[in-house]
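User: Here's a chain of 224 residues. Predict its fold as tokens.
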Amino acid sequence: MRCPAALAELEARLAEPGSGARVVRGRASRTGRAAAVLILFAAPSPDAVPADFELVIIEKSKHLRKHAGQCAFPGGGVEPGDASSEEAALREAREEVGIDPASVDLLGVLPPARVAVTGYHVTPVIGWWREPHPLEVVDQVEVAAVHRIRVGDLIDPANRVTWRLPMGYRGPAFVVADLFIWGFTGHLIDGLLEVAGWAEPWDAHRVALVPERFLHRAGLDTGQ
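Assistant: Prediction complete.
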């Protein structure tokens, strides 16, 4: 299948100077352990519009020491055998939920962003899932579930809120069915929708506490 026009346009936008910085928005990082995540778009047809695309999202295991229960993109630390952040993101996606790297075409790479809770500097890698196939939880220690979320549901202003923690931290969140997507992942989706030109106006004054299911309370885990 040929790449949908909207994803080809996104690829071009990501190649423009400064566009990656607009997505990570002041979170650029030069220090810490290197990690990578895969932001993977699937499309039902070459003529699909952005609302019909899907994003692959995982739910992390509730037993993890950091980010337990949170929604995230597949990913993890860059290992010595990885030739690049792109290779690390694809390897982690295969190990976590069975994504075949050969089925993915890369669209762009964003600047590394700092995640304070883990100390990682995470490189978001964006891809088009050219040949979608069934997914399953492979790494049952790290991952509780895998979802394919319609981008139209992320764009919908009715599904957007500002998340809040009792200690005062806030940020953009997405409420899709029974999922609450917040923290670093919500931040990336928010910035990517803006850069892609897919975002619609939404009420940032509509605030919601992060549900217990998606909140790790050990220490001061802000999801950031």
